[in-house]
Design goal:
With about 250 residues, this protein is α/β, with parallel strands linked by helices. It is built from eleven helices and eight strands.
Length: about 250
């Protein structure tokens, strides 16, 4: 319990949402294998009786069995539903530019990639709304004059705030393929005519995103390699090789 509470406080201190903090806390809730090593060492040094080691093992087994249940309850909370009672809205929209736009692009993730993309689109006259679960990222978007919504892109209430039914395109610039896949499926159901593009870091992620409704998935490392290769082949002495190959 102690490490889960500490993880929650630390994640929130870095500006992440309650949803992210609870997910990390839940992942640390079960007793780890290191406890077995400590218990075994305690018995070997005659500091801990064998019965104590049995209690540690029993506690670990119980925590391992309960951990999936914790994630099920967490998923229900994140989806905005609890059995028998309503919960507060998932979306958190700090004061900022108006969200009342149409024919816009929704950029999910306002980190290094998403912020550059959103700023370029806005400079070229494309209306943009961003979604990010980091409070500081949303504040930075507002400071740049870009409407932003704080929350998980996989949450129904958050997506609704961005008006995907009025949008033309959604670009998922987040590095979490599971959250991106869930958001893609929901966006496709809300507006089948949307163009959906996503960021990936491996061939497996590309496949996962395409299977969940993406029209295209770009693996950043591969695109960077292609761009660097083009630059190499445009410089002497490789320029001649490129001309010959053509």
């Amino acid at each position: 319990f102690g490490k889960s509470l500490a993880a929650f406080v630390i994640v929130r201190a870095f500006g992440h949402s309650n949803s992210t903090a609870l997910t990390i806390s839940a992942s640390l809730a079960q007793i780890g294998e290191f406890a077995f090593i400590i218990a075994g060492l305690g018995v070997a040094l005659k500091i801990l009786p064998p019965e104590g080691q049995d209690l540690v093992l029993a506690g670990a087994l119980i925590s391992i069995m309960l951990n999936p249940l914790i994630f099920v309850l967490l998923d229900r909370w994140q989806a905005g539903h609890k059995p028998g009672q309503p919960v507060a809205p998932v979306a958190e929209t700090p004061p900022g530019p108006s969200l009342d736009v149409t024919d816009h692009a929704i950029v999910i993730g306002y980190g290094r990639v998403g912020s550059e993309l959103a700023n370029v689109l806005r400079e070229r006259g494309v209306p943009v709304i961003i979604i990010d679960d980091n409070e500081h990222h949303v504040d930075r978007a507002h400071a740049a004059g870009i409407p932003g919504i704080r929350g998980s892109a996989a949450a129904d209430a958050v997506l609704a705030e961005a008006h995907p039914e009025k949008a033309k395109i959604v670009i998922l610039a987040i590095p979490q393929p599971l959250e991106a896949g869930e958001a893609l499926a929901k966006l496709r159901a809300i507006n089948p005519s949307l163009t959906l593009l996503a960021r990936a870091h491996s061939d497996a992620e590309v496949k996962h995103l395409l299977e969940h409704g993406a029209d295209g998935a770009i693996m950043a490392e591969r695109e960077l390699a292609y761009s660097l290769a083009e630059m190499v082949m445009s410089t002497p002495p490789y320029r001649a090789m490129r001309t010959t190959a053509a």
